[in-house]
Amino acid sequence: MFMPVSCSNCNTYLQLPTGSQIVCCSRCILRFAYSRCPPPPPPPRRSYSFSSSSYNNRRPSLSYAFSFFSYNNRPPPPSRLPCQRKRAVICGINYKGMGKNMELEGCINDAIAMQNLLVREFKFPESSIRMLTEKGGHQPPTKINLTIALRWLVQDCQAGDSLVFYFAGHGDQQPNNTGDEVDELDEILLPLDYETKGVIVDDEINEMIVRPIPAGVKLHAIVDACHSGTVLDLPFLCKIDKSGQRWFWKDQRRPQKAGVWKGTKGGEVISFSGCNDHQCAVEKTIPRGAMTWAFVDAIDRGCGNTYGNLLIAMRSTVRKDCIDTDSAIQEPQLTSSEVFDVFTRPFSL
User: Fold this and answer.
1) Which residues belong to the active site?
2) From-to residues of CATH 3.40.50.12660 in the chain
3) Does domain 86-336 have CATH number 3.20.70.20?
4) Disulfide check for 288: which of 13, 42, 83, 106 has CB 3.0–4.6 Å away?
5) In degrees, to the nearest 5, what angle opens at C-alpha 207 toward C-alphas 150 and 343?
6) DSSP β-ladder status, 162-168 and 86-92
């Protein structure tokens, strides 16, 4: 049996055999008569009660943290909502120097307006937006640059992410040879160097930014170009009358002929386009694209609370602009990778 004692000189804790009255301190080498001291504190226990609220409200001391974590009883981390990341690719092409019939006036203005809208209204970080225009400081909107940007847009996307692809420029159609188009025509976008590098076909756009989208990720495309109604090759087209009283989703899939799945990996893709596949998109006199102007205007006026209300407001504004400029009527379109109630689903980017 041993009796706890403390050195009278340095207070070092010692153990004295029962019956002994003199002890030599191992620290200061002093012989002394013992005096009783209280027993040392018990060693730390291996189990601890843990309260998440107390843990979050009080930072543990270093000694507490050391003893706590040394026994592998580390508490679970506090629960967090999925971290939402926002990315956007914005492309506007005026085709300057490519001939009077090709040149446009408002596409770069539209691209800058869309960038401002995403930052101001939808809190996109400027660092997460890639701009492709002919303006200095932006990447040239060539085919290779646009392709790289679109692949970057969806790269490593995770549940909770919000992605946006915006394009203002020329669109067109060409014959389809795969049988996956109802009208047997593919929709195409024209990059700045389309004459030498070629166009971007809707099948390619679908492959790059639709099919890779996983569950929990949402991508919006806003395309202000001629013949752009189904330029993402999404399976459902929203048909809606002027009043909004009658509407339905038209299924445009042709599974018996199309050998490739054109949906997502569980995520959601929604596209607003400037007109249907057989119409042309016009510019306003100010200069701005009629569809982009209507899109931004509807959100600024508070008409973009749902997808249906946003589409009706855009169509009303575009129709008025077409009449004022004596242009052929264009009608903005809404397509989606899945069906939903357009008048109850809140719109957000």
Assistant:
1) 170, 226
2) 86-336
3) no
4) 106
5) 80
6) parallel
